Amino acid sequence: MNVRDFYFDLPQELIAQDPLEDRSASRLLVLDKHTGEIEHRHFKDILDYLKKGDCLVINDTKVIPARLFGVKEGTEAKIEILLLKRRENDIWETLVKPGKKAKAGTVISFGEGLLKGTVIDVVEEGNRLIQFSYEGIFEEILDQLGQMPLPPYITHQLQDKNRYQTVYAKNEGSAAAPTAGLHFTKELLKEIQDKGVEIAHVTLHVGLGTFRPVKVDEIEAHHMHSEFYIVEEEEAKKVNDAKRNGGRIVCVGTTSCRTVESASTEDGILKAGSGWTEIFIYPGYRFKILDCLITNFHLPESTLIMLVSALAGRDHVLHAYEEAVRERYRFFSFGDAMFLTDQKDRGTVN
């Protein structure tokens, strides 16, 4: 399967630069994963498509302000780093720009010395292992000095850090937000629960690997970077009970999808536990747990549009994307949403 099979034309002006004031006011394209039928709604209408007995799976990871700007000690050269994953204690794997100025032994100062980092090794794909030193609590210093790691296609300054967090974000560790969850408000989640829909929490710390471009022609040769996930016993039980009782498993975002599909058995039982996943879902994949998916619109030729195509079929997905472009939907992280479902299995639509 060729990466070009997942290309679509996107006008630059449709890339959303700012979040909407009301999270749930985004538009919602509803796509029947079997027939390709499309409906145009608003996100708060998701309530109409969920029904008692369903289980909504959300990723409660919290984005850390992982982008730091510092200077190289001795030369005062400016260096930008992005924290990717904590290896141990105060050692982090990072992405450094410009990398040529960050050889092993380089010391980088942030916030006029409030935080210092020493490059101790160069690892896979040129990433740097940096050991940090500081006085106080690392998370508090990071909150003071760091910026949210917005994707490069967002050029506007984010005024409120919390708008790049879901309202249920809890477990710190992500380098990017699980953006399908940005549409939910606490009020909407309560309405969903009041309808009899179970809400299960999982955690997957989103790394940049999910968003890296596919650099091979044949997608089967692409290797996904690993991301850490956690599924608690009580949350696994919610999913398994809903599945056993005939409810649908509705994942919020590709990260929740990848978590439950990584942590489940071949016969569709979600197992509690934690670990690293490199799961790459593309057409031909057989879903073990997930029935429906709430997701944003993704980049052309990305692993995420491949995942969506595995659920609803490439032709249906690309047709839906063409329709979204015609209807001037907003794309990517701060953009509008899709709901991939089965119309005959949906809740009562007003």
Automatic annotation (TrEMBL):
Its EC number is 2.4.99.17. It holds the Pfam family Queuosine_synth. It catalyses: 7-aminomethyl-7-carbaguanosine(34) in tRNA + S-adenosyl-L-methionine = epoxyqueuosine(34) in tRNA + adenine + L-methionine + 2 H(+). It comes from the Bacteria. Pathway: tRNA modification; tRNA-queuosine biosynthesis. The keyword DNA damage does not apply. This is S-adenosylmethionine:tRNA ribosyltransferase-isomerase. Monomer. GO terms for molecular function: S-adenosylmethionine:tRNA ribosyltransferase-isomerase activity. SUPFAM superfamilies: QueA-like. The lineage of its organism: Bacteria, Bacillati, Bacillota, Clostridia, Lachnospirales. Keywords: Cytoplasm, Glycosyltransferase, Queuosine biosynthesis, S-adenosyl-L-methionine, Transferase. Belongs to the QueA family.
